[in-house]
Design goal:
Layout (H helix, E strand, L loop, with lengths): L1 E6 L5 E6 L1 H4 L9 E2 H14 L3 H57 L2 H11 E7 L4 E6 L11 E5 L1
Antiparallel strand pairs: 1-2, 2-3, 4-5, 5-6
C-alpha cells in the first residue's frame, strides 16, 4: 500500500492508503483506506500488546481521539453558524440597497400616496415629552412570533 491524498469541496486535505495494484490499473480488494484510521489502529495495537504501560498509553490515545471527535463536531457546528451569519449579512445588505433606492420612489409619490404608505407601515406613534422619546410601532407583516418591532429616537 502507498499513501495518497485528496481535497474535498472545502479544500480540506484527506490522506488515505491505496493498493499499489490500483496504481497499475488493477483492481484493489480493499479499496481506499482512511490513513488516520489505519494509523490509529496500528498504533493502538502496537501499544496494547507491549505491557501495562502500553495499555495505559493506548487507553489515553483512545480518550484523546474521542475528545478530538467532539472538537471536530464543535468546529462543524461553528462553521454552520458562520455560514448562517454570512447569509444574514447578505440578506441585510440586500435590504439596505432596497431601502436606499426607496428615496426615488418616495419622491415620486403624491402626498395622499405617502400618507397611505405610512398608514400601511405604522400602527402607532407615541411621544413621551418628559423623556424626549418617540416610539413608533410598525404593523406586523404576519401573525406576531415575538415582541412587536419598535424604533425609539430622542427628539
Amino acid at each position: 500500500m502507498s499513501t495518497s491524498h485528496a481535497y474535498n469541496h472545502k479544500k480540506q486535505r484527506y490522506r488515505y492508503y491505496r493498493c499499489r495494484a490500483s496504481q497499475e490499473g488493477l483492481r484493489c480488494p480493499t479499496g481506499l483506506l482512511n490513513a488516520h484510521d489505519v494509523e490509529a489502529k496500528r498504533l493502538l495495537g502496537a501499544f496494547s500488546s507491549v505491557d501495562a504501560g502500553g495499555r495505559l498509553l493506548a487507553e489515553r490515545l483512545g480518550e484523546l481521539e474521542r475528545e478530538t471527535d467532539k472538537h471536530r463536531a464543535g468546529v462543524a457546528d461553528l462553521e454552520r453558524r458562520l455560514r448562517a451569519c454570512a447569509a444574514l449579512r447578505t440578506e441585510s445588505e440586500h435590504v439596505a440597497k432596497l431601502l436606499d433606492a426607496f428615496d426615488e420612489v418616495w419622491e415620486a409619490l403624491v402626498p395622499e400616496e405617502r400618507r397611505e404608505v405610512l398608514r400601511a407601515l405604522i400602527e402607532r406613534v407615541g411621544v413621551d415629552p418628559e423623556s424626549g422619546t418617540l416610539r413608533v410601532t410598525f404593523h406586523e407583516p404576519a401573525p406576531p412570533i415575538g415582541p412587536r418591532s419598535t424604533t425609539e429616537a430622542t427628539a
